[in-house]
Amino acid sequence: MNNKEDERVDTAAKEPYFWNSRTHEFLGRTATSWGLILLFYLVFYIFLGGMFVLTMYVMLLTLDDYKPTYQDRLATPGMMIRPRGEAMEILYNTQDAGSWVTYTEVLDNFLGPYNNSVQVQNNDDCAPDNFFIQEDSGEVRNNPKRSCQFNRTSLEACSGMTDRTYGYEAGQPCVLIKLNRVIGLLPGKDGQSPYVTCGAKKEDVDAMGELAYYPPNGTFNLMYFPYYGKRAQVNYSQPLVAVKFLNISLNSDVNVECKIKSNTLPAGGDRDKFAGRVSFKLRISSINN
Ligand SMILES: *[C@@H]1O[C@H](CO)[C@@H](O)[C@H](O)[C@H]1NC(C)=O
Ligand SMILES: *[C@@H]1O[C@H](CO)[C@@H](O)[C@H](O)[C@H]1NC(C)=O
Ligand SMILES: *[C@@H]1O[C@H](CO)[C@@H](O)[C@H](O)[C@H]1NC(C)=O
Ligand SMILES: *[C@@H]1O[C@H](CO)[C@@H](O)[C@H](O)[C@H]1NC(C)=O
Ligand SMILES: *[C@@H]1O[C@H](CO)[C@@H](O)[C@H](O)[C@H]1NC(C)=O
């Protein structure tokens, strides 16, 4: 046994770690050592913070309040319907008001802001068939920009003004179609507005029956374009097309697809099955239960 070594190990073990009064070390370091470490981290974090603030600042400088710097530009925007139903299915029974009243309520709420009175108050009575261009002149902002009136009455039989049930009760339902908003999109040229056409899947063609479109020919007039964004064009009313099913077969599934036709928008090929089109299913029953 080596006594000396034993002794040394012993003293080292007995040295208090938390506060060593002999060497004035706290947790194994002297005050100066702790001070330097704290100073290092202080400087380090101030530097990191500074970098973060600087990067944010430079990034924010490059952003424009009025239009997005980056935007997903589909060549042809998607379309959506109202009412949407669950999973793009409009199913109801003409004899059961409870089964269709939710659809007409959706339409009532959706069309509220299109009331002529609201449109006349908020928006301009624009000249149709031309783009409503309101560019900024250089650095001078032309904001806020005006928007064109889209009167609820232009949806005629589908406006809900004369027929409060939008044809649902009579088994001739209206479906509203809108084109997704894309900032700066010019969806036509030569005064020809894009328009909507709807058709049925092959086996459902006979069941779909005749359709009526409102406004006439199912057009989204050019005067509602381009769209400049929510912030620049605060009162923008998205144009709508209503499709009314005049003679749809009862008690059968009818799969409908509506497409946008335009002389500038490329037809959404098979590659993107949502570009410029929307599909939905109708099933109108008429059975007393
Ligand atoms: C729009 O008009 C309808 C029918 O006249 C009315 O019930 C509704 O409250 C109006 N909505 C708005 C937002 O003005
Ligand atoms: C938006 O509508 C409000 C309410 O009618 C109107 O006071 C305002 O001037 C409109 N703004 C624009 C840019 O059209
Ligand atoms: C909207 O309706 C008002 C009257 O209700 C009419 O003066 C105005 O010309 C209409 N606007 C459009 C774009 O049809
Ligand atoms: C609808 O289309 C037809 C044929 O393309 C055209 O003669 C008619 O003027 C159009 N109606 C409206 C209101 O645009
Ligand atoms: C309605 O559709 C039926 C077939 O589903 C057809 O026999 C009838 O002639 C159509 N009526 C009109 C007015 O088109």
From TrEMBL:
<comment type="similarity">
    <text>Belongs to the X(+)/potassium ATPases subunit beta family.</text>
</comment>
<keyword id="KW-1015">Disulfide bond</keyword>
<feature type="transmembrane region" description="Helical">
    <location>
        <begin position="36"/>
        <end position="63"/>
    </location>
</feature>
<dbReference type="InterPro" id="IPR000402">
    <property type="entry name" value="Na/K_ATPase_sub_beta"/>
</dbReference>
<dbReference type="GO" id="GO:0006814">
    <property type="term" value="P:sodium ion transport"/>
</dbReference>
<keyword id="KW-0633">Potassium transport</keyword>
<keyword id="KW-0630">Potassium</keyword>
<keyword id="KW-0739">Sodium transport</keyword>
<keyword id="KW-0812">Transmembrane</keyword>
<comment type="function">
    <text>This is the non-catalytic component of the active enzyme, which catalyzes the hydrolysis of ATP coupled with the exchange of Na(+) and K(+) ions across the plasma membrane.</text>
</comment>
<dbReference type="InterPro" id="IPR038702">
    <property type="entry name" value="Na/K_ATPase_sub_beta_sf"/>
</dbReference>
<dbReference type="GO" id="GO:0006813">
    <property type="term" value="P:potassium ion transport"/>
</dbReference>
<dbReference type="Pfam" id="PF00287">
    <property type="entry name" value="Na_K-ATPase"/>
</dbReference>
<keyword id="KW-0406">Ion transport</keyword>
<keyword id="KW-0472">Membrane</keyword>
<protein>
    <recommendedName>
        <fullName>Sodium/potassium-transporting ATPase subunit beta</fullName>
    </recommendedName>
</protein>
<keyword id="KW-1133">Transmembrane helix</keyword>
<dbReference type="GO" id="GO:0005886">
    <property type="term" value="C:plasma membrane"/>
</dbReference>
<keyword id="KW-0325">Glycoprotein</keyword>
<keyword id="KW-0740">Sodium/potassium transport</keyword>
<keyword id="KW-0735">Signal-anchor</keyword>
<keyword id="KW-0915">Sodium</keyword>
<keyword id="KW-1003">Cell membrane</keyword>
<keyword id="KW-0813">Transport</keyword>
